[in-house]
TrEMBL record:
Superkingdom to which the source organism belongs: Eukaryota
GO cellular component labels: transcription factor TFIIH holo complex
A Pfam family reported for this protein in Swiss-Prot or TrEMBL: TFB6
Biased composition (Acidic residues): 205-223
Cleaved signal peptide residues: none
Region (Disordered): 26-53, 205-226
Bias (Low complexity) ranges: 26-38
Protein name stated in the entry: Uncharacterized protein
Family annotation (InterPro entries): Tfb6 (IPR031349)
Length: 259
């Protein structure tokens, strides 16, 4: 697998805020905002070393490289004279759209050996890029809800929205290693802090429509119609970032420490 994975994931999730509040257990699976729908998964994981697995790896790697390149163009004048179809990012919702495309591909693959490390890497990438753009609440929280749903599903071995057993798990919950759980916990807790910081700035993107975000027709289902421009609702949403994932990891890692 590509060497892009460990470096990005570890560098982006390197600290844990000691006073970060945990979500209330009673509300862990009852957010008032619906999760963006996930595409249908394969029935079985990709065979290790198969041409299909290689194709997915190459596809994901190339898209991650494109995201990194477009981000670099935002800050480097060395790309200014290059004729390239991929322009530098101007808004985070453009980043979110490209990342969400990769997330969907990984989810459809139904292959935990690809999903877990790549999603950790993408979560770290989100943390790295969020501070570089004006805050784009709708696109950001849409992506966060989808990432939270997928991480929580992988931790439990079943789709948290439907209860269906995930491909490659067979009812088991130990597919995600303890090391990976610690990394996910660190990254997701860091994401909360980063979003609160970015949200507190003055450069919030006001024209934050979803024209460039995938699944535009699902805006109402995703809960956007309930928000309008009320700042208080965005603040409430920021408190729910990775709500399910953080609660599950807190419970699981806490039990391991006790034992």
């Amino acid at each position: 697998m590509s060497s892009v994975l460990p470096n990005q994931a570890e560098s982006a999730g390197g600290f844990v805020h000691p006073s970060l509040p945990s979500p209330a257990p009673s509300s862990i699976f009852s957010s008032s905002t619906a999760t963006p729908s996930l595409p249908r998964q394969r029935n079985h994981p990709l065979v290790p070393g198969s041409s299909k697995e290689t194709s997915v790896i190459n596809h994901v790697d190339s898209h991650i490289l494109t995201i990194n390149r477009r981000h670099a163009k935002k800050f480097s004048s060395s790309f200014a004279d290059q004729a390239d179809a991929d322009n530098g990012y101007e808004r985070f919702r453009e980043v979110a759209k490209d990342i969400e495309t990769i997330v969907d591909v990984l989810w459809v693959s139904g292959t935990p050996s690809l999903q877990i490390p790549y999603l950790i890497s993408l979560a770290g990438l989100i943390n790295s890029y969020l501070p570089d753009f004006p805050f784009s609440p709708r696109a950001t929280f849409r992506l966060m809800r989808k990432m939270d749903s997928i991480f929580a599903s992988l931790l439990q071995g079943e789709d948290v929205e439907t209860g269906a057993i995930l491909p490659g798990f067979g009812g088991r919950r130990g597919i995600v290693s303890t090391t990976e759980k610690v990394r996910i916990k660190s990254i997701t807790e860091s994401t909360r802090i980063i979003i609160v910081d970015v949200q507190g700035r003055d450069n919030v993107e006001e024209d934050d429509d979803l024209d460039d975000v995938a699944d535009d027709d699902d805006n109402d289902e995703a809960g956007y119609s309930d928000y309008g421009d009320a700042l208080g609702r965005w603040e409430l949403e920021s408190a729910r970032v990775y709500e399910r994932t953080i609660q599950l990891l807190g419970d699981e890692l806490g039990k391991q420490e006790v034992s």
